[in-house]
Design a protein that fits this description.
The complex is a heterodimer of chains A (about 350) and B (about 400).
Chain A (H helix, E strand, L loop, with lengths): L2 H21 L2 H9 L5 H10 L17 H13 L6 H14 L12 E4 L11 E5 L2 E10 L6 E8 L2 E8 L5 E10 L2 E11 L4 E4 L4 H37 L1 E2 L2 E2 L4 H28 L4 H30 L10 H12 L5 H14 L2
Parallel strand pairs in A: 1-4, 2-4
Antiparallel strand pairs in A: 2-3, 3-7, 4-5, 5-8, 6-7, 9-10
Helix pairs in contact in A: 1-3, 1-4, 4-6, 5-6, 6-7, 6-8, 6-9, 7-8, 8-9, 8-10
Chain B lengths: L7 H15 L1 H4 L9 H14 L17 H13 L8 H14 L2 H13 L4 E4 L15 E5 L2 E12 L6 E7 L10 E7 L5 E6 L8 E12 L3 E2 L5 H40 L6 H27 L7 H24 L8 H19 L8 H12 L7
Helix pairs in contact in B: 1-4, 4-7, 5-6, 5-7, 7-8, 7-9, 8-9, 9-10, 9-11
The chains are: A alpha+beta (about 350), B alpha+beta (about 400).
């Protein structure tokens, strides 16, 4: 990538970060989270900012960036979380639309939730299939299930892996739970027993599995970037707090025990940044199987380092960090929400290990 | 750097070609050859004659004016090829640059070419029994008497102390209270009367380190490098040059070990054993994080050569984390009672990995303990006050 292209990516990430900082400060995020975790007006602002068209191919009117070009944007969204199913609409929908034989089958203004049985660490937790004229099954960890216009459902069919567009109000869609796992996003389990004639097959055929796997890789990288951004905020918040909080007549930042925790937190944060940078660069020249491993590596690192950063941040803050109104909460919960979504450290590292052992 | 300098990749390819034609693979075909001092010294001589040594030093002091990434590419390729590093690495990577930069033209003339060619091996006399991570409290005393210093004291953890011809020693040339302001940088010939070297057998069973004792050793005044009592500045220059290059070289060695561990792990599976797959995968994640970090370090080495950075501490911490995780996996999977193979083969495999595992535990101790590295980050990166 040329320096000029790099600058343009950074400029785009900065511009989106500015919009988000102005329109969705944490106080506002908490208000939205109290209600439905979805704010239509702010969603329109996100659309205008270009966020949702970053990964849309230029031929479809988007910016045509790759996920590796866009990690800087998701890093910013980790620093300043926003409400709504952003990853579903900024990552999954554009990539699946690009893989469709007719992208027009998915209305680009629809707010969608990506429904993928592989989203949970334990894959038997859900399964969806298409057979005999019906789309059936269930999937967990579906974002904003009660507020979206449509679901993008990954389903195993006779011809391979397909992705269906199912209207939110189609007969036979059942949403269980609407859990505020993090500030600004609710999660539920969605069950389907829907007539295929009520759904639209967006991605199908032999390329379906590859398109879905590429989408998962992109989601893992975007999540890892969000966690890296959130982790950086937690490090900064903790450092700043240690410098002002006084005990025994000094700031707690002067205590060696605290310094070691903060330096360790820095170590985790910079390790995650380095891992992400490496994965992004490697992805550019990776074949599909390698790409999948790269996504798993980035996400496994985010799961582990993110959690360690968050736990240390809480420890540095002490009691005040344990209160609901403290901002540590927002970033801690974002990190926990991402931890097992599309694989936790153990499941992803296990897949990486198996992949290595199976090479000749 | 000269305008026609080759890219690091092109340079790496040139070195590979040279390696393939050099006959060194035959020289080091057996394990025993890799510790044969005469063969190792000849290996450094051939690298020197081939123009692969001190390539990152300025031309004026005996180098080739390329970047430290070019030099590092040479060390990495040697590691990837499973060849031994040249025996004078402490001279080449740690003290040599300081000797060449701060030495007078006469001193350079006297020492540098021999150091580079491996005719003289150098060791680094920094640490003392009472001055480990707290280097500025060192006590080895050098008193000026006429045209000579008389040196008395003890150094410890001196790598290659039992083979080196010269020692770049930090000595106290002022009162003990002078701390870092009263230290000088002195080249001491190891064959001098009054120098006693006692190799230290370590936990791993080898004798990489020695204790070095100085009893009224007479050192000519001409062996003072830099001005009197400015040794601390030179020591920091040495340490700054040590760290970045070490990270990159050690990373290459870890990648080689990873391949070997993976291959032994497959052998274990073939014999019906199981593997902690997540632990293996996590090692790979850490090595990839380290690869990303090493690339940043490489950029820093080119953009700000020789500038000490608190980022060196972050590098060291991640390197140690990856190294200790990888070798703990090896110990857990391939150690005694766990290694594949039968009889002698299993024991040999287990012994190799146990030794490497034990060595990895030193990673959070040498060149500044993990706790010291974190204190450096706390103060210099995070801007926290001096701790109490």
């Amino acid at each position: 990538m040329t320096m000029q292209a790099l600058d343009e990516r950074a400029e785009l990430a900065r511009a989106i970060a500015e919009v988000v900082a102005a329109e969705m400060p944490l106080t506002r995020l908490r208000e939205v989270a109290e209600k439905t975790s979805f704010d239509r007006g702010f969603w329109d602002t996100l659309v205008e900012s270009g966020l949702l068209s970053v990964l849309v191919p230029e031929s479809l009117g988007g910016l045509g960036l790759t996920i590796q070009d866009a990690t800087g944007i998701f890093y910013e969204l980790g620093r300043n979380p926003v409400p709504g199913p952003v990853l579903d609409n900024a990552v999954a929908a554009p990539l699946l639309r690009a893989a469709a034989s007719d992208p027009g089958l998915l209305d680009e203004t629809a707010v969608v939730a990506f429904v993928d049985p592989a989203a949970t660490t334990w894959s038997s937790a859900g399964a969806t299939s298409a057979a005999d004229g019906r789309l059936t099954g269930r999937a967990e960890l579906v974002r904003s299930p009660s507020t979206v216009d449509a679901f993008l459902v990954v389903a195993a069919g006779v011809g391979g892996t397909s992705v269906f567009v199912v209207p939110g109000d189609a007969a036979g869609v059942r949403v269980e739970g609407d859990h505020p796992l993090e500030f600004g996003a609710r999660y539920g389990t969605v069950s389907f027993d829907v007539a295929i004639s009520d759904a639209t097959e967006l991605v199908a055929g032999p390329g379906g599995a590859a398109a879905v796997e590429a989408t998962r890789t992109a989601l893992r990288l975007a999540m890892a970037a969000e966690v890296a951004g959130a982790g950086k905020v937690l490090l900064d918040l903790s450092t700043a707090y240690a410098l002002v909080r006084s005990q025994f007549g000094q700031t707690i930042a002067s205590f060696q025990g605290l310094q070691q925790i903060l330096a360790e937190t820095y170590e985790y944060s910079s390790a995650l940044d380095s891992l992400l940078e490496w994965c992004v660069d490697e992805l550019a020249s990776a074949d599909p199987a390698t790409a999948s491993q790269i996504g798993s590596k980035a996400k496994a690192g985010a799961a582990e380092f993110g959690r360690l950063i968050a736990e240390n941040a809480l420890q540095v803050h002490g009691g005040i960090g344990f209160t609901a109104e403290h901002d540590v909460n927002v970033f801690y919960k974002l990190i926990l929400a991402r931890e097992a979504h599309y694989g936790d450290k153990r499941s992803l590292a296990g897949a990486i290990g198996r992949g290595l052992l199976s090479t000749p | 750097m000269a305008a026609e300098a080759p890219s690091v990749d092109a340079y790496r390819a040139l070195f590979r070609e040279w390696l393939a034609a050099s006959g060194v693979y035959e020289t080091f075909a057996g394990e025993a050859a890799k510790t044969d001092e005469a063969k190792l010294r000849a290996w450094q001589r051939s690298l020197y004659d081939g123009g692969w040594i001190a390539v990152h030093w300025p031309v004026e002091i005996g180098g080739r004016g390329l970047s430290s990434l070019h030099q590092t590419a040479v060390w990495e390729e040697i590691a990837f090829a499973r060849l031994p590093q040249p025996p004078g690495l402490i001279g080449l990577e740690v003290v040599g640059g300081t000797v060449a930069r701060y030495g007078t033209p006469e001193q350079r003339e006297r020492w540098v070419a021999r150091l580079l060619a491996g005719d003289d091996l150098w060791c680094q006399g920094f640490s003392e029994p009472e001055a480990g991570s707290d280097l500025a409290s060192l006590r080895t005393k050098a008193t000026l008497e006429g045209d000579s210093f008389v040196v008395s004291g003890q150094k410890i953890w001196t790598t290659m102390g039992d083979q080196a011809e010269w020692c770049a020693a930090l000595v106290r040339t002022d009162t003990p209270e002078s701390r870092h302001r009263g230290i000088s940088y002195l080249a001491i010939e190891m064959a001098s009367p009054g120098v006693t070297v006692r190799p230290t057998e370590t936990l791993t069973g080898d004798t990489e380190f020695s204790e070095v004792f100085f009893d009224d050793v007479v050192v000519p005044k001409d062996n003072l490098i830099g001005d009197l009592n400015t040794g601390w500045k030179l020591a920091m220059d040495t340490l700054a040059n040590e760290r970045g290059g070490y990270l990159l070289r050690r990373r290459a060695e870890l990648e080689v070990m990873f391949d070997d561990i993976l291959s032994d792990a497959k052998a274990r599976i073939a014999e019906g054993g199981d593997i902690d797959e997540p632990a293996l995968g996590w090692c790979r994640v850490l090595l990839d994080a380290l690869a990303g970090q090493a690339r940043k370090t490489g950029r820093r080495m080119v953009d700000e050569p020789g500038v000490p950075s608190a980022m060196d501490s972050a590098d060291k911490l991640l390197l140690t984390r990856a190294e200790q995780a990888l070798l703990a996996f090896a110990q857990d999977t391939l150690g005694f009672g766990r290694a594949p193979g039968s009889g002698g083969d299993a024991l040999k495999t287990a012994a190799r990995w146990q030794e490497a595992y034990l060595y990895s535990r030193a990673g959070s101790i040498y060149s500044g303990t993990r706790q010291i590295q974190r204190s450096i980050i706390a103060e210099r990166v995070l801007g926290l006050p001096r701790s109490r």
